[in-house]
Amino acid sequence: MNRSIVHMDLDTFFVSCERKKNSELVGRPIIIGGGDRGVVASCSYETRFFGVRSAMPIKMALRLCPEAMVIKGDMDMYLNMSQLVTEVIRDKVPVMEKASIDEFYLDLSGMDKFFGCYKWTQEVAQAVTDNTGLPISFALSTNKTVAKIGTGESKPVGKLEVKEKDVQPFLNPLSIKKIPMVGNETFQLLSRLGVRTIEMLSQTPPDVLQQLIGKNGTVLWKKANGIDETPVMQYSERKSISTEDTFSQDTIDVFAVRSILSGMVEKLCYQLREEKWLTSTVVVKIRYSNFDTETKQCRIPHTSADHTLLKYVLELFNKLYTRRIRIRMVGVKFTNLVHGCHQMNLFEDTEEQISLYQAMDKIKNRFGTTSVCRASGLIR
């Protein structure tokens, strides 16, 4: 059976949410971000004309487009709108994967003989706009890779179908940058070898690519040839993530306990970012030597950043630990999770902090979760 995979992407999602709230912003150049040292979380097409892009420092963006209006952004509003879109899509399709706060994959395989997959996708996209007022683009094809590339080529508010016989003619003239897994380093490496289009990449022997960029070389060759068997994973909300540590000996060493909490937070935050979750509730638990157990929690703005969450965890611990008797166990839980594609609060944190988290996560992905960590988490 031929697969029918749809990729849907909300157009300039953050900007669209702000324009829905304030219609006077329609048509104006908009940058969503925070602070002079912050970065661009999202930007309107009016600013992209001048070269502004996501993750660019705000100062640089304003030099390129001085007339742009900078809006700090409201993550809670964006998450609520994302949830509304999720519910609209989930009610209408058999299998839906939520890839990020504004991206969705649908598997409509086998439905073509009943409804017509392209027509059905049009109706789903229209339902999203009717129920939320947000513009959305989509592409329908044989797999995730081609569908995602198709959505990017169809924007803004695009509707595209790439049939199986048209996959290679569609991909061939495009830049290798269009392939989702091709980052800047890989692009520069392949460009130096003269491989700049998907057609040239598809004709490069896979063993050569594997020697150049490692085990992903074969995967990249398959994607360039329109081959991607990755399934659409049914979306389900995760409620919480947590970890606990029961000590071999009960302790009253507050300094050591704080160090353990620091390590816990770092571990959980890495997991949040890897699975693309944001948390809005922090819970700290203590079990004393007499087995009495106490917890304390607080609500916070949605985030997945270590330094933000660690601050709240330590504050809760200081408020919770007042009995001054030995501790048997401590635990940390992050609850009220929502899907989010941002690794940290792009509206408040600096470019340097964002780059630091990205670099640390990259090292952990390659060498293991214990390869790099905060010094405060090593003191026991």
UniProtKB/TrEMBL annotation:
<keyword id="KW-0239">DNA-directed DNA polymerase</keyword>
<dbReference type="InterPro" id="IPR043128">
    <property type="entry name" value="Rev_trsase/Diguanyl_cyclase"/>
</dbReference>
<feature type="binding site">
    <location>
        <position position="9"/>
    </location>
    <ligand>
        <name>Mg(2+)</name>
    </ligand>
</feature>
<dbReference type="GO" id="GO:0003684">
    <property type="term" value="F:damaged DNA binding"/>
</dbReference>
<dbReference type="GO" id="GO:0003887">
    <property type="term" value="F:DNA-directed DNA polymerase activity"/>
</dbReference>
<dbReference type="InterPro" id="IPR036775">
    <property type="entry name" value="DNA_pol_Y-fam_lit_finger_sf"/>
</dbReference>
<keyword id="KW-0460">Magnesium</keyword>
<protein>
    <recommendedName>
        <fullName>DNA polymerase IV</fullName>
        <ecNumber>2.7.7.7</ecNumber>
    </recommendedName>
</protein>
<dbReference type="InterPro" id="IPR001126">
    <property type="entry name" value="UmuC"/>
</dbReference>
<keyword id="KW-0227">DNA damage</keyword>
<comment type="function">
    <text>Poorly processive, error-prone DNA polymerase involved in untargeted mutagenesis. Copies undamaged DNA at stalled replication forks, which arise in vivo from mismatched or misaligned primer ends. These misaligned primers can be extended by PolIV. Exhibits no 3'-5' exonuclease (proofreading) activity. May be involved in translesional synthesis, in conjunction with the beta clamp from PolIII.</text>
</comment>
<dbReference type="GO" id="GO:0005829">
    <property type="term" value="C:cytosol"/>
</dbReference>
<keyword id="KW-0479">Metal-binding</keyword>
<comment type="similarity">
    <text>Belongs to the DNA polymerase type-Y family.</text>
</comment>
<dbReference type="InterPro" id="IPR050116">
    <property type="entry name" value="DNA_polymerase-Y"/>
</dbReference>
<dbReference type="InterPro" id="IPR017961">
    <property type="entry name" value="DNA_pol_Y-fam_little_finger"/>
</dbReference>
<keyword id="KW-0515">Mutator protein</keyword>
<dbReference type="InterPro" id="IPR043502">
    <property type="entry name" value="DNA/RNA_pol_sf"/>
</dbReference>
<dbReference type="InterPro" id="IPR022880">
    <property type="entry name" value="DNApol_IV"/>
</dbReference>
<comment type="subunit">
    <text>Monomer.</text>
</comment>
<feature type="active site">
    <location>
        <position position="103"/>
    </location>
</feature>
<keyword id="KW-0238">DNA-binding</keyword>
<feature type="site" description="Substrate discrimination">
    <location>
        <position position="14"/>
    </location>
</feature>
<keyword id="KW-0235">DNA replication</keyword>
<keyword id="KW-0808">Transferase</keyword>
<dbReference type="GO" id="GO:0042276">
    <property type="term" value="P:error-prone translesion synthesis"/>
</dbReference>
<dbReference type="Pfam" id="PF11799">
    <property type="entry name" value="IMS_C"/>
</dbReference>
<dbReference type="GO" id="GO:0006261">
    <property type="term" value="P:DNA-templated DNA replication"/>
</dbReference>
<feature type="binding site">
    <location>
        <position position="102"/>
    </location>
    <ligand>
        <name>Mg(2+)</name>
    </ligand>
</feature>
<keyword id="KW-0234">DNA repair</keyword>
<dbReference type="Pfam" id="PF00817">
    <property type="entry name" value="IMS"/>
</dbReference>
<dbReference type="GO" id="GO:0000287">
    <property type="term" value="F:magnesium ion binding"/>
</dbReference>
<keyword id="KW-0548">Nucleotidyltransferase</keyword>
<dbReference type="GO" id="GO:0006281">
    <property type="term" value="P:DNA repair"/>
</dbReference>
<keyword id="KW-0963">Cytoplasm</keyword>
<dbReference type="GO" id="GO:0009432">
    <property type="term" value="P:SOS response"/>
</dbReference>
<feature type="domain" description="UmuC">
    <location>
        <begin position="5"/>
        <end position="183"/>
    </location>
</feature>
